[in-house]
Amino acid sequence: METPNFSIEFFPPKTAEGAEKLRATRAKLSELHPKYFSVTFGAGGTTQRGTLDTVREILAAGEDAAPHLSCVGGTRESLRAILAEFKASGIKRVVALRGDLPSGYGAAGEFRYANELVEFIRAETGDWFHIEVAAYPEVHPQAKSPRDDLQAFVRKVNAGADAAITQYFYNADAYFQFVEQARKAGVTVPIVPGIMPITNYTQLMRFSDMCGAEIPRWVRLKLASFGDDTASIKEFGLDVVTGLAQRLLAGGAPGLHFYSMNQAAPTTALWQRLV
Ligand code: FAD
């Protein structure tokens, strides 16, 4: 069996204090020996510098790191410059996304969909980068239909992606079905489930509404019933997510990608239950 592909995601800190906190978080999470850390990238250019600075710092510490790169609002010229900077920084992996334009931002720019970005990266840089793309077992919120969304995913992979990371979900069957359909459509690359620890009910509901992740009714009702009792929310959340991760790995998932939210404790607690 191949080594499971465990990776951990951060967002770039906005302040010096946030950067200091992230350093401490990373030091703790490094003890888990993830294959790589990834660092998100804000659409519209908000955190491009923060992404690159954070990735460089992780690489300098001797760990592997992948910047996320979104193409919406970008031009061929601006993306070419970013890729050149990535290469010059010794970056060998990238998570390639369309991204989302902030509302009222206007036209999408020269790239409409992520498959165009993957094609561009391959045309510009050959095999330099290991490219990950996003996958949506519960269907991307803007997709015309599940079928169209699957086809869009297949197009992205065929454009040259090496692997995929999914949006988070709490229904394991959605993942297994998605993988089965992708395989039938000829996709052979690893599809790694994205795992969102449950630590905060309000935040989870807000994120899930935005990205189209379904919180199963029984999970939602139980979390709501704990009110301000954060210890119970965390304990129950850990049980739910551990069960999900165990089921995914037992069912053949090639690894897990943890949405750490820049916190060490939830990912560490989960990890300790899995190993
Ligand atoms: P695409 O694959 O281009 O798909 C977007 C939508 O367009 C889908 O509904 C798809 O069905 C549809 N579509 C695709 N091709 C076509 C076509 N030819 N015709 C019609 N419809 C089409 N966002 C950030 O801003 N920064 C990040 O760092 C970031 N990291 C992420 C990491 C992961 C693992 C995931 C799962 C998501 C991340 N996102 C991030 C969110 C992501 O940018 C949004 O979900 C975005 O709306 C879609 O990006 P995509 O790359 O999946 O787009």
From TrEMBL:
Its cofactor is FAD. The keyword Amino-acid biosynthesis applies. It holds the Pfam family MTHFR. GO terms for cellular component: cytosol. It is an enzyme of class 1 (oxidoreductase). The keyword Electron transport does not apply. It catalyses: (6S)-5-methyl-5,6,7,8-tetrahydrofolate + NAD(+) = (6R)-5,10-methylene-5,6,7,8-tetrahydrofolate + NADH + H(+). CDD domains: MTHFR. One of its GO terms (molecular function) is methylenetetrahydrofolate reductase (NADH) activity. It comes from the Bacteria. Keywords: Amino-acid biosynthesis, FAD, Flavoprotein, Methionine biosynthesis, NAD, Oxidoreductase. One of its GO terms (biological process) is tetrahydrofolate interconversion. Its EC number is 1.5.1.54. Pathway: Amino-acid biosynthesis; L-methionine biosynthesis via de novo pathway; One-carbon metabolism; tetrahydrofolate interconversion. NCBIfam families: fadh2. Belongs to the methylenetetrahydrofolate reductase family. This is Methylenetetrahydrofolate reductase. The lineage of its organism: Bacteria, Pseudomonadati, Pseudomonadota, Betaproteobacteria, Burkholderiales.
